[in-house]
Amino acid sequence: MPEPVIHAENLVKTYRSKGQPEVVAVGGLSFEVAPGESFGLLGPNGAGKSTTMKMIGAVSTRTAGELSILGLDPDRYGPEIRSRLGVVPQQDNLDGELNARENLFIYGRYFGLPAKACHAKADELLAFAQLEDKAKSKVDQLSGGMKRRLTIARGLVNDPRILLLDEPTTGLDPQARHVLWDRLFRLKERGTTLVLTTHYMDEAEQLCDRLIVVDKGRIMAEGSPSALIREYSTREVLEVRFGASRNDEVAPQLQGLGERVEVLPDRILIYAEDGEAVLERVIAEGLEPITSLVRRSSLEDVFLRLTGRSLIE
Ligand SMILES: Nc1ncnc2c1ncn2[C@@H]1O[C@H](COP(=O)(O)OP(=O)(O)OP(=O)(O)O)[C@@H](O)[C@H]1O
Ligand SMILES: [Mg+2]
Questions:
Q1: CA angle, corner 183, sides to 180 and 188, nearest 5?
Q2: 239 pairs with which residues across the strands?
Q3: Is the pLDDT of residue 313 over 60?
Q4: Which CATH number fits domain 234-296: 3.20.20.140, 2.60.40.10, 3.30.70.980, 1.10.15.40?
Q5: How do residues 36-83 score in pLDDT, each as one tens digit?
Q6: Residue 311 — pLDDT band, cuts 50, 70, 90?
Q7: Closest ligand 1 atom, CA of 54?
Q8: What CATH number should be reported for the domain whose range is 6-224?
Q9: Under 8 Å between Cβ of 192 and 162
Q10: Are 91 and 137 in contact (CB under 8 A)?
Q11: Every domain of the chain and the residues it spans
């Protein structure tokens, strides 16, 4: 592996506030990110994703452990690191009073770029974010997806080696998410290292070369999406619904029909290589599900297997 651009070893962050018990937001994460890689942190609310991103972004100090970004320790080289990173925070923090183009221009000036370069960069990034026709619109008048694209564009003003994206598409509709994914693919093709958090398994599957599954500040598993699915799930899943009142009664009869059975409040999941074959056996047993669906295993199934909980609760 080439020299990693991010190296974290036993990274810990605890929060203390008066009269409150100590919160361990990040409980000892170890991972490395290679140059040009697209690396993900997948986990539910409160897993410690944003806290980790803030430490990588050199805006929050670690409590313990080792952390090096582009070979530099953020405790000592915060400004140098920040100047080489692009950051897309979980909450958009654009200036609502300014228009889209002005937001990009001013951000470039923060980085000390000459005015002429900022104008050129603003135009280039408006095109990249497909926001040319919104250049003069006040940010407050943009849709959620447009704001997200503008925030990503703003994160690219300083031509960063690494772009940190904290939940890039949360709250966006499917079409807006696809537009964003397309933009992120292009960045990846250009060699930008992407580090992103998400609690959408499809986003992680689409964008990440490799990811860590994080829960309660700890790494539960690490690998490429396909390797994780191979390791922790079967090829297919049969989802059957019998109605909330009958699920518990039917579940024991389904044991043994697949490799594993998960009983969720609204449905039962039967893990197997061939879902259709299992469905035939379910029906042969005289059990008539109200609905049935055969699908490929996803990272959601990996998460369920690892934690016993659903990713989006
Ligand atoms: N400034 C803070 N002070 C005290 N506790 C905090 C602070 N920031 C985060 N926490 C706590 O740390 C834990 C991890 O929070 P974090 O924001 O990193 O989670 P997350 O994985 O980003 O979640 P989400 O998906 O909801 O964004 C939570 O228990 C949270 O309440
Ligand atoms: Mg977060």
A1: 125
A2: 269, 293
A3: no
A4: 3.30.70.980
A5: 999 999 998 999 999 999 999 999 999 999 999 999 999 999 999 999
A6: low
A7: 18
A8: 3.40.50.300
A9: yes
A10: no
A11: 6-224, 234-296
- φ/ψ region of 46 (left if φ > 0, alpha if ψ in -120 to 50, else beta) reads left
Mutate to test the pocket of ligand 1, among 13, 20, 45, 50 (most ligand atoms within 8 A of CB): 50
pTM: 0.91
SS3 for 295? strand
Residues ≥6 apart with Cβ < 8 Å to 160: 84, 85, 86, 192
15 lines ligand 1 (CB under 6 A): yes
- What secondary structure letter does DSSP report for 158? T
| Alpha carbon distances (Å) from 202 to 20, 30, 165, 184, 299 | 37, 24, 16, 14, 8
Which residue from 11, 51, 195 has its CB within 8 A of the most atoms of ligand 1, so it is best to mutate? 51
Q: What distance in angstroms lies between residue 217's CA and the mean position of ligand 1's atoms?
A: 10
pLDDT at 249: 87
Q: What is the mean pLDDT of the chain?
A: 93
Q: Dump the DSSP string for 184-221.
A: HHHHHHTT-EEEEEES-HHHHHHH-SEEEEEETTEEEE
